[in-house]
Write a structure and sequence with these properties.
Blueprint: H1 9-20, E1 26-35, E2 38-48, E3 56-61, H2 69-87, H3 89-97, E4 99-103, H4 108-113, H5 160-172, E5 178-186, E6 192-196, H6 208-221, E7 227-231, H7 242-252, E8 259-267, H8 270-275, H9 292-301, H10 303-314, H11 324-339
Parallel strand pairs: 3-4, 3-5, 5-8, 6-7
Antiparallel strand pairs: 1-2, 2-4, 6-8
Length: about 350
């Protein structure tokens, strides 16, 4: 790889993984951002089928720079997947049928600086044109000042990093027959949560029947899993959420017949604080496990979820293809569970 970008530890780690892959993956610099005089790449990594309609799982990390544990988990999983591709024939056959996409560092400037926002002071997960349809707070998003957290940026133009996410989704995911998005974050609560749309509104998610069927399958297959699965809006509303924006755009595509399911893994970092309150005195302590043994545990903690996503992607008849009666039953149970209706 030609080295032309400014290097910092997390970027050097990612580039070392790419260099070691030795042709097993497809690598693209989707865009690049500049912070002061430093040029930083936005890497997208793909493997598996190149057919546009192939089912896809896309992993995104590092949208908020302080939450770099999401990127580090994806680095670890990427290393595992590359190793399996080298020798595991069953895994190779899986990837003949589907595609994996990794965008592990959406916000390299934020990771380099140790900030939630990007180099322009913008919270990338509040940067789309979507408006809140309900009560909002400061942390829902605002345009008061980049000196405050949750700043949404210019309402007329999205940030380079946010546009790069949209480009990846439109180019490599929108035409898929079935697509999971998993965006890794940390910093909310004591439970690991799997959030699905909407974030901007309390309206029920249009694919509620399918996501409820997927949850049932997950609960049945792994009855001791530790995830709380719910709509984002159960906790709070977000203005400008990228996944709401792309989900609604996908639904408006006249040619789109596929199922597009974006989810956010929100790791419950308050549990790390409860175990060691001294983390509060570290810049990363609220969002990142600092003790080596805890960090190691978190790096492997979610691999069961990743494997289940891949299995359910390749076996959609178990949950995604529902008849009218199943949809109606699932819709009713999901409404009672998540919306109190």
């Amino acid at each position: 790889m030609t080295k032309r970008f400014y290097s910092f530890p997390e970027l050097a780690q990612l580039e070392a993984i790419i260099d070691a892959a030795d042709g097993l993956i497809r690598v693209e610099v989707i865009s690049q951002v500049t912070y002061e005089d430093r040029l930083l790449p936005l890497y997208c990594i793909q493997m598996g089928s190149e057919k546009p309609e192939a089912p896809v799982i896309a992993f995104f990390g590092g949208v908020h720079g302080l939450e770099k544990i999401g990127s580090e988990i994806l680095f670890a999983y990427l290393q595992t997947v590359i190793s399996l591709l080298d020798w595991d024939k069953e895994f190779q056959r899986r990837l003949e049928q589907c595609r994996l996409i990794f965008f592990p560092m959406v916000n390299p400037a934020g990771i380099m600086l140790g900030t939630r926002c990007n180099g322009n002071g913008v919270d990338l997960m509040r940067n789309s044109p979507i408006k809140c349809a309900g009560e909002r707070t400061l942390y829902s998003g605002h345009r008061l000042s980049p000196r405050l957290p949750w700043y949404q940026g210019n309402s007329e133009k999205m940030e380079i990093e946010a546009m790069a996410v949209c480009e990846v989704v439109r180019s490599y995911i929108f035409d898929s027959s079935l697509a999971f998005i998993l965006d890794l974050h940390s910093g909310f609560g004591v439970h690991d949560r799997l959030w699905f749309p909407y974030a901007y509104s309390h309206m029920p998610f249009p694919n509620l029947a399918q996501i409820f069927a997927w949850k049932q399958l997950f609960d049945r297959s792994y009855p001791n899993h530790f995830y709380k699965i719910e709509p984002t809006s159960v906790e709070y509303l977000i203005e400008g959420d990228l996944w709401d924006y792309l989900y609604l755009e996908h639904r408006q595509k006249q040619t789109s017949m596929g199922l597009f399911l974006p989810m956010t893994l929100e790791m419950g970092s308050w549990l790390w604080l409860r175990k060691n309150p001294r983390h509060l005195f570290s810049r990363h302590g609220f969002f990142h496990p600092l003790l080596p043994h805890r960090r190691q545990r978190i790096l492997r903690r979610h691999f069961t979820l990743f494997d289940f996503l891949l299995r359910s992607l390749l076996n959609p008849e178990a949950w995604a293809f529902l008849d009218d009666e199943q949809k109606l039953a699932n819709q009713g149970r999901a409404m009672a569970l998540w919306y109190g209706r």
